[in-house]
Amino acid sequence: MNDPITIKERLVDLKKLISEHNYHYYVLDNPLISDAEFDKIFLEIKAIEDLNPELITIDSPTQRVGGEPNKSFKQITHQRPMLSLGNAFDEKDLDVFDKRIREELGVANISYVAEPKFDGLAVTIVYVDGELHLAATRGDGSVGEDVTHNIKTIKSIPLKLPSNSPAGQIEIRGEVIMLKNDFIGLNKRQLEANEKVFANPRNAAAGSLRQLDPTIAASRPLSFYAYSIFCDNKTLASQEEGLDLLKQLLIPTSNLTKRVDGVRGMIDFYNAINNARKSLPFDIDGVVYKVNSLNMQDELGFVSRAPRWAIAHKFAAEEAMTTIKDINVQVGRTGSITPVARLMPVVVAGVTVTNATLHNEDELRRKDIHIGDFVMVRRAGDVVPEVIKVVHEKRPNDIKKFEMPTLCPECSNVLVREEGESVLRCNAGMLCPAQRKQSIMHFASRKAMDIDGLGEKIIDQLIESSLVLSVSDLYTVKTEKLLKLDRFAKKSAENLIESIEKSKKTTLGKFIYALGIRNVGEATAYDLAKQFGSIDKIMSASKESLLSIHDIGPTVATSIQNYFNEDTNREQVAILLKEGIQWDSIEVGAEEISNELEGLVFVLTGTLTSLKRDEAKNLILSCGGKVSGSVSKKTDYVIAGLDAGSKLDKASALGVKVIGEDELIQLTKKG
Ligand code: IVH
Questions:
Q1: Predicted local distance difference test score (pLDDT) of residue 67
Q2: What positions does UniProt annotate as the active site of this protein (predicted)?
Q3: pLDDT band at 152 (very low <50, low <70, confident <90, very high)
Q4: How much is the pTM?
Q5: At what angle do helices 433-444 and 508-515 cross, to 10 degrees?
Q6: Residues with CB under 6 A from ligand 1
Q7: Which of 60, 205, 487, 602 has the most CB within a 10 Å radius?
Q8: Cβ neighbours around 554 below 10 Å, total
Q9: CA–CA separation, 342 and 391 (whole Å)
Q10: Residue 240, annotated ligand binder?
Q11: Residue 486 among known ligand-binding residues
Q12: Across all residues in the chain, what is the average pLDDT?
């Protein structure tokens, strides 16, 4: 095992591998493997070199930063190298990092600045006497590409600095990224124009910045966040001072950044950011800690590839490569047929993934997905894992094309594709066992009737034993019948009956949501409840009166009418009411009802800190207000959390009032 020839050969192989992946990642913007797999190869090289320093060569990836610069751009030699960062994956790595620094400096405690690690493209922007002079990508760390023409199209980057800024040259470094919402919008437009869609916001940002034609870059929604500054004529004492100066110069910086002390402080920051990650407007792949004092930074210096005063604390990977064993379809609650990839199990962000959604047939064809393909799978938070793309370079010869079925796999009904729809559908409704089961699950779910203890397994049992065939049957089940089922004891049976009984007292909004009308989510259900005030009025509402509700368009209005035009659905409602379902209030909970926000329209943006998004939304709804997704002239208030993005700009452009969470809570208490 320790044979030096074997190790040397291994090192040669690993270096070759890294250089291939570097090329795909940095030059082609088309990674073949996930960041985590790349990091693993890199770490193995590093480990071998640490043990055998005589094997380090100048072509080692540990001796340089990134890939080759793209030849078709003018090359720019950086005045100071653009470095990379070492990685930490756990508390132990942070301990080692912090201890080394403390020992080297002979200091007991170190203050760090903790920042989000943006997942985009590093750029440097040089201002001379206040004017944007030059912008370049990182390239290989020493020589980058001139992207001044494209950087100038990013509106958040000033072309001129405020007149009181330091004279001479100022170099600013940061990350060009694409906000998650902008990315979704861009891909939608690309799709409509039959253009390439991007796998993730990072690739979209990189692909947009590396355009020779600035008009293309200008049409792409890019953002920029700065994290370092160097001034010819101003001495700075700390990273914090640098960030303050950037703010003064009106350069975008992240307001998630925080000063922290020691390893404890780092971990608290990491956990807080990790929790907020899903609701941040942009992707981050970890956090960065930097020694705050610039004197200390100078003293610590650099190793070949990275500063010794900073480290990146990476999140567990959210993307991984695996193969598709098979593809089959799932029938959704409203009959939609979704193709699902059955995968070779793979760990993504700490969770083993075996299935991933392929959305619909068009999506599957567009991504050219076949059974047997190698694919990249993404899992973001608790969202259903999805296949992002095929790794064509690894495509085997024996792949198999997947054909969508023509009959429902659950009930053999003929599937239809309605006009203007991208999904196939089984219209058998409650006659289809899959739709029956999912409707009951939805009905019982927390945001609907909230029947505690009624999970998927019990619903399966209830259906199999024919005790429950429709949602209204839930209210006729008796304890004695439950006792005949597997795994039910007296106590558990009584508890379930009690939960079912308790659910009878609800709100009109929750009841409408629970019915599972196609295209009627929670917010629309509350809107209907509030507008009409009674189930009878909703059931007989005219199209015009439905359309008069904010946020209800023709598709939703038609779905509502179609639902109540079905005799079986009207019967279900009648039986449920006869069984004793009732509400005192039309919206959330009677105790929460007030009308302080009556008639006001709110838009939520950024990361809220004291309330969760859902809580803020419910608070507004329960006080008679409305929540909208986009800022318009009709918006009364924008509630801005941390790092609020473009919605704030829109609010200020339209003169819409911007307030914080605390002020929102104050508003609800007024009067
Ligand atoms: S500091 C000398 N701060 O991460 C210090 N980098 O792996 C190097 N990045 O090239 C940069 N967010 O593209 C720094 N808050 C942040 C960052 C950050 C993202 C990227 C940057 C850099 C790479 C290093």
A1: 35
A2: 117 (n6-amp-lysine intermediate)
A3: confident
A4: 0.52
A5: 160
A6: 83-85, 115, 117-118, 122, 138, 175, 227, 288, 307, 310, 312
A7: 205
A8: 10
A9: 17
A10: no
A11: no
A12: 88
